[in-house]
Design a protein that fits this description.
The complex is a heterodimer of chains A (322) and B (656). Chain A is α+β, with helices and mostly antiparallel strands. Chain A has helices at residues 2-8, 10-17, 40-58, 62-86, 200-203, 207-214, 235-240, 270-287, 306-317, and strands at 27-28, 35-38, 90-93, 99-100, 104-112, 119-126, 132-137, 142-150, 155-158, 162-166, 173-179, 184-188, 218-223, 245-249, 256-260, 290-295, 298-303. The radius of gyration of chain A is 29 Å and the shape is elongated. At the A-B interface, helix 3, helix 4, strand 6 and strand 7 of A face helix 5, helix 6, helix 7 and helix 19 of B.
Chain lengths: 322, 656
C-alpha cells in the first residue's frame, strides 16, 4: 500500500528517501538516508530486558539492575553500530556489459567502506527483481557486488532502486537505505537463432552467394588483427610459432553482405524483424563475413569484428527508441 | 515483501554452524557452572550433556533428534526435579529448570534465531546467579559470561567474520553500553521490592542469631566467617572491650534452652546523661529477623524502626536485603529507667527441680551478702576462682546443665557462662536476663570500618540493680579476659579455629583487610544503592528535587546526551577524503557552476582541457590545476607543497 502510494507520488518518495532518482556519480549514504527499526529479535531482547528488570525489582537485586541496564546500554550502542555499519558508504557503479533481451544484465556496484573498521554482512538487493547478494566490506577497501537483473526488452535498462541493508552487530536492529544509481545497461534485441537464409541471397545483390561459396575455402594465413574473430585464429599455427595468425578464406574479401530491414517480410512485426536482424548479425559475425546493416534511417557500412557487431546490435537495440 | 526470494539477513533463514554452536555452548557453560554447587549434580551433568549432544549432531552432520525425543528428555528431567524438591515451583527448582531449558533450547537449535534465543536465556541465567551471591568475584565472573554471550551473539550476524573480530566488537559494544548503564543505574527510579509474594524458599539458609539459645548453638555459629554487619563510626570508635552489640534478649529458661518468649508491652525510653555517645552507621547483612544491631543502649532510632521493651531496635519488617542505617548509642548511661514489676518477676523465674547445687550456692551467696551489688560481685569472684576453661568444644551436658558446668566439667563457651550466671543470679533473688549479640568486631586499618562476623557472636548477662537499672555483666570475661581485648582468635586454642582467624597468618589477615575494605565499598555503593542513596546522590550533584519525575527527566537528558555522543563517535570513525581529493572536488563544483560538468567517465586531463577550452579566461589556472592534481593523485611522490598550491589555486580560481 505504502509502496503504491510512493510510486504515485514521486515527490513524496523523494522526500522520504532523501534523494531524487536517478543519482549521478558516487552516492554517499549520509545518515539522513539510513533508516533503522528494531527487528523481531530486537523486540524479543526488549521483552527479556523487561522481565529482567521486574525480577531485579522484585528480589531487590542490585547486580540484576546493573545487568539489565548494561544490556540496555549494549542494545542502544548496538543501534548506533548498526546504523554506522551502513552510513557513509560510498556507492558507485561500474560499466554493465550489454546483454541480450531474455538474459540478465550484470550490474556491478562498488561499495567503498571508507572506514578504518570493516563493515560485515551488508545485503544489496535489487528491488525490482529480488536479485541479492550479502557482502563483507574489509577495512579501507572497496567491495564489488554483481546484481543480475533480468533484461526483458531491448533498449536501455536502468538499474532502478537498490536496497542496502544490515543487521550487524547484534541483529536487534535493521538499518537500510535505498539508492537509485544512474546506471544502465544496453539490452540488444533477443536474437533469433537462424542461419542466414538462402532465399535472401538473390535480393542481396549477389553478396550472399559469394559468401556461401567461399567462406569455408581456406586460402592462407595472415597476421592477426584486433578486429579478427577469435574463431578464425589458426590455433594450430600459433602453437608452432609465437605469432598469432588468422586464417583467410577465399571470397571473403569479396563477400559484402547487407543485412537489410527491407529483406524481411513486412508481415513480421518490428520487434520480430529486429530479432531476426540481430540473429543475422551474430550469424554473419560467426561466419566471418563482412556485413553491413540497413535500417530505415540507419546505414552501417560493411565491416567485421566484435566492435562492428556491437555497433550493429546497438543500432538494433535502440532502433526507434529515444 | 513482494519478492519471494528469502531474505538472507533473517536469522531464521540461516543455519547455525558448528562454530556458532561451540561458542554458544561455551558461553552458556560459564553461567551454568556456578550453579553446579547448588543444583542437583545430575541436572548440571544433563545440561552439559545436552550441549555436547547438540555439538555432536552438528559435527557429524546427522539430522537433529525428533521433537518427541526432546520432549521425553524434558519430561524425565522435570520429573527428576520434582522428586528432588517435591515441587517444581519456588526459587531453587525454578532456577534448575531454567538451566535445563537452556540445554534443551540448545539441543533444538537449528537457525540463528534459535541460537539468539538461547543466548538471551543465558542473560537470564546470569541474573539467577545473583540470587545467591552478589559478591565481587561473582560479579566479575558474570561480567566475563556477559562478554562471551555478547560476542557469540555478534557472531550470528556476521557468519564469515573471524571470532577475534567479534570479540573486539563485543568489547566495544559493552564499553559503549557502560555510560548508559551507569546513568540508568544511578537515575532509574528505584522501587523497593518485592512487587508480589516471593516463593517460600526465597530467604532460607541465613546464618545468624536466633530467638533461642540452646547449648552449642553459639559455638557452632562462631565457626562461621560470614559477615554479620559492618559499622563505620564518626570519630574514634569505642575500644573493643566495650563494643557490645545487643541482639535478642532472652528471658525464659526451661532448664536447657533460653528463649525470648512473648514480647512485653512495656515502652522503652532511651536514657539521658550517658558517659559517652557514639554516632555511627551500620550496614547489616540480611538475617531474616527484624532486629537491628546497635551498640549497647541506642539513643536514636533509624527510619521505620522502633524500640522493643528490652531496648533493642526492631525494623518494621524482617531484614531480607542488606540495609544501612544511622544510629547513635550511649555506653554505660546513668539513671536508667525503672523496670515494670511484671518484667522483674519474669526475670526471677526458674524451672523447678533442676540444678540443686547451684540453688544451694545461690542461697549461700545471698546469705553472705548485704545487697544485690554484693551478690553480683561475689558470684563473679566465684567464677574467677573456679578457673573455668573457655573452649569451643565443651562436653555434652545433661539434665542439670548449670550444675554440671559450674561444679563438674568447669569448661564451656559464652553461652554456658551466661546461662549459668543468670541462673545463679535468679536463684539468689537478683533479676537477670541473657543477652545475645556480638562482641568486639575487627577494626580494618585500611578504611577504619569495624567488621563484625558471626565468629564474634556472644552471650552475656544483664542484672537489674535497684537505682541503676539493668547493668551488663559479662561472666565470660572473668574466665577468658582476653576474649574482650583480642577477640576469639587469641582466647581459645588455635587448632579449633577457622584458618583465616588464626593469629599466625598476619600477611593473610592484611590481605583480608584490603579485600574487606573493597567489599565494604562494593556493598555500600553498588549493592546497597537504593532510593535513599539515590536521593543523596541527587542532592550531591545539586538537584534539589528527587522525586521520580525529576529522576526520569534527568535520566532522559543524560541518555540523550550519551546517544548524541555515540552518534558523534560513529561519524568520526569514517575517514575524510584526503585534501587533494577535496580540492579537486571543489574545483569540479566550481566549473560545474559555470556549466562545465565533469561526466563520470571523464579523466582529469580530458576534463581540464575541455574546461580550458570552454572557459578561455581561466585557461592557464585550469590547466595548472589539472596537472597538479594528476601529479599529486597519480604521481609517485607525495608533495605537501604541491597540495598547498593546489588548494590555493582552486580557492583563487575565478571562472566568472
Amino acid at each position: 500500500m505504502i509502496g503504491g502510494l510512493l510510486e504515485r507520488n514521486p515527490r513524496l518518495a523523494q522526500w522520504i528517501w532523501g534523494f531524487k532518482p536517478p543519482e549521478r556519480g558516487t552516492i554517499i549514504l549520509v545518515h539522513r538516508r539510513v533508516y533503522i527499526v528494531p527487528t523481531r529479535l530486537g523486540w524479543l531482547f526488549a521483552a527479556t530486558l523487561l522481565i529482567l528488570l521486574i525480577g531485579s525489582i522484585n528480589y531487590s537485586l542490585a547486580l540484576g539492575f546493573a545487568l539489565t541496564f548494561l544490556l540496555a546500554g549494549v542494545g542502544l550502542a548496538g543501534m548506533v553500530h548498526t546504523a554506522r555499519n551502513l552510513a557513509r558508504i560510498a556507492v558507485s557503479t561500474g560499466r554493465a556489459e550489454p546483454a541480450f533481451a531474455g538474459e540478465s544484465a550484470q550490474f556491478r556496484i562498488y561499495l567503498d567502506g571508507r572506514s578504518g573498521s570493516d563493515r560485515p554482512a551488508i545485503l544489496a538487493r535489487h528491488v525490482g527483481s529480488g536479485s541479492q547478494f550479502v557482502i563483507d566490506i574489509p577495512p579501507q577497501a572497496l567491495a564489488e557486488v554483481v546484481l543480475a537483473v533480468p533484461a526483458r526488452r531491448r533498449g536501455w535498462l536502468p538499474l532502478g532502486r537498490v536496497l542496502l541493508e544490515t543487521r550487524f552487530p547484534l541483529g536487534l536492529f535493521r538499518a537500510w537505505s535505498y539508492i537509485e544509481p544512474d546506471a544502465r545497461c544496453l539490452v540488444y534485441p533477443q536474437p533469433e537463432r537462424t542461419p542466414l537464409p538462402a532465399p535472401l541471397a538473390e535480393a542481396a545483390a549477389g553478396a550472399l552467394r559469394s559468401q556461401a561459396a567461399g567462406s569455408d575455402d581456406f586460402s592462407g594465413l595472415r597476421t592477426y588483427q584486433l578486429s579478427d574473430s577469435p574463431r578464425h585464429v589458426a590455433w594450430k599455427a600459433v602453437a608452432r610459432s609465437d605469432e598469432l595468425l588468422t586464417k583467410q578464406f577465399t571470397g571473403e574479401a569479396a563477400a559484402q553482405l547487407w543485412l537489410d530491414w527491407r529483406l524481411l517480410p513486412a508481415t513480421a512485426g518490428q520487434e520480430q524483424r529486429l530479432s531476426r536482424l540481430a540473429g543475422w548479425v551474430l550469424a554473419a559475425e560467426r561466419a566471418g563475413a563482412f556485413y553491413g546493416l540497413r535500417l530505415p534511417g540507419v546505414e552501417i557500412a560493411p565491416r567485421r569484428g566484435d566492435a562492428h557487431a556491437g555497433t550493429c546490435l546497438q543500432a538494433l537495440a535502440l532502433y526507434e527508441l529515444r | 515483501m513482494k519478492n519471494a526470494a528469502a531474505h538472507p539477513l533473517l536469522p531464521e533463514a540461516r543455519l547455525a554452524t558448528t562454530r556458532d554452536l561451540v561458542l554458544l555452548c561455551g558461553s552458556l557453560a560459564l553461567v551454568v557452572l556456578p550453579h553446579a554447587t547448588r543444583a542437583p549434580w545430575w541436572l548440571t551433568l544433563l545440561t552439559l550433556c545436552l550441549f555436547a549432544w547438540r555439538i555432536h549432531y552438528s559435527i557429524n552432520g546427522v539430522p537433529l533428534p525428533s521433537r518427541w525425543l526432546v520432549l521425553a528428555v524434558a519430561g524425565v528431567a522435570m520429573l527428576g526435579v520434582w522428586v528432588e524438591y517435591r515441587t517444581i515451583f519456588g526459587r531453587q527448582p525454578g532456577i534448575v529448570l531454567l538451566m535445563l531449558f537452556a540445554g534443551l533450547k540448545v539441543l533444538e537449535t537449528r537457525t540463528h534465531r534459535d541460537a539468539a534465543a538461547a543466548a538471551f536465556l543465558g542473560y537470564f541465567l546470569i541474573v539467577t546467579n545473583f540470587l545467591y551471591t552478589q559478591a565481587m568475584p561473582t560479579a566479575l565472573a558474570m561480567a566475563l559470561a556477559l562478554f562471551a554471550i555478547t560476542a557469540t551473539l555478534t557472531g550470528f550476524s556476521a557468519p564469515n567474520r573471524a571470532p577475534r573480530a567479534n570479540l573486539r566488537t563485543a568489547a566495544l559494544l559493552l564499553a559503549h553500553g557502560v555510560p548508559t548503564a551507569a546513568a540508568l543505574f544511578l537515575l532509574f527510579p528505584r522501587v523497593q521490592g518485592p512487587l508480589w509474594g516471593l516463593p517460600q524458599d526465597a530467604y532460607s539458609a541465613r546464618t545468624g542469631l536466633s530467638e533461642t539459645m540452646a547449648p552449642g548453638e553459639i559455638s557452632r555459629l562462631v565457626l562461621s566467617d560470614t559477615i554479620a554487619f559492618r559499622a563505620e563510626f564518626e570519630g574514634t570508635p569505642p575500644a573493643s572491650q566495650v563494643r557490645y552489640w545487643r541482639g535478642p534478649v532472652l528471658w525464659d529458661f526451661d532448664g536447657r534452652v533460653w528463649s525470648a518468649g512473648a514480647q512485653s508491652l512495656g515502652k522503652f525510653a532511651p536514657p539521658g546523661g550517658a558517659s559517652a555517645t557514639y554516632r555511627y552507621s551500620v550496614v547489616l547483612e540480611p538475617h531474616n529477623q527484624s532486629w537491628l544491631f546497635a551498640l549497647e543502649v541506642p539513643t536514636s532510632l533509624p527510619e521505620d524502626s522502633r524500640y522493643s521493651a528490652d531496648g533493642i531496635v526492631l525494623a518494621a519488617a524482617p531484614v531480607r536485603s542488606r540495609v544501612r542505617y544511622e544510629m547513635s548509642s550511649a555506653i554505660a548511661p546513668r539513671g536508667a529507667p525503672e523496670e515494670q514489676p511484671a518484667q522483674l518477676a519474669r526475670a526471677l523465674r526458674l524451672p523447678a527441680g533442676v540444678n540443686p547445687r547451684t540453688l544451694a550456692l545461690a542461697e549461700e551467696l545471698r546469705l553472705a551478702s548485704r545487697g544485690d551489688d554484693e551478690i553480683v560481685a561475689r558470684a563473679i569472684g566465684f567464677l574467677r576462682r573456679g578457673r573455668y576453661a573457655y573452649t569451643l568444644e565443651p562436653p555434652l551436658l545433661g539434665q542439670d546443665s548449670v550444675d554440671e558446668f559450674l561444679f563438674d566439667f568447669k569448661a564451656g563457651f559464652c553461652e554456658h557462662f551466661s546461662s549459668a550466671f543468670v541462673f545463679l543470679m535468679r536463684a539468689a533473688g537478683v533479676p537477670a536476663r541473657v543477652v545475645t549479640g556480638y562482641q568486639g568486631g575487627e577494626l580494618n586499618p585500611v578504611d577504619h570500618i569495624i567488621t563484625v562476623r558471626q565468629s564474634d557472636a556472644h552471650a552475656w548477662a544483664e542484672v537489674h540493680v535497684r537505682g541503676r537499672g539493668w547493668v551488663r555483666v559479662d561472666p565470660t570475661a572473668t574466665a577468658a579476659p582476653s576474649r574482650l581485648d583480642a577477640g576469639l582468635a587469641r582466647s581459645i586454642q588455635q587448632s579449633e579455629q577457622p584458618l583465616l582467624m588464626r593469629a599466625d597468618f598476619e600477611w593473610l589477615r592484611s590481605l583480608h583487610h584490603q579485600w574487606d575494605a573493597a567489599a565494604y565499598k562494593w556493598n555500600v555503593w553498588v549493592l546497597g544503592y537504593n532510593s535513599e542513596r539515590q536521593r543523596e546522590f541527587m542532592s550531591y550533584v545539586g538537584l534539589r528535587s528527587s522525586d521520580w519525575r525529576a529522576l526520569v527527566a534527568t535520566l532522559f537528558t543524560v541518555l540523550g546526551i550519551l546517544t548524541v555522543l555515540l552518534l558523534a563517535w560513529s561519524l568520526r570513525r569514517v575517514a575524510r577524503p584526503d585534501p587533494v581529493q577535496r580540492a579537486w572536488r571543489a574545483f569540479c563544483l566550481k566549473l560545474a557552476a559555470r556549466g562545465v560538468e565533469r561526466s563520470p567517465s571523464e579523466g582529469p586531463r580530458d576534463y581540464a582541457e575541455r574546461a580550458a577550452r570552454a572557459l578561455p579566461l581561466a585557461r592557464r589556472a585550469i590547466l595548472r590545476i589539472g596537472d597538479l592534481y594528476i601529479g599529486l593523485r597519480y604521481g609517485r611522490e607525495r608533495n605537501p607543497r604541491g597540495t598547498k598550491d593546489l588548494r590555493r589555486l582552486v580557492r583563487e580560481l575565478r571562472v566568472a
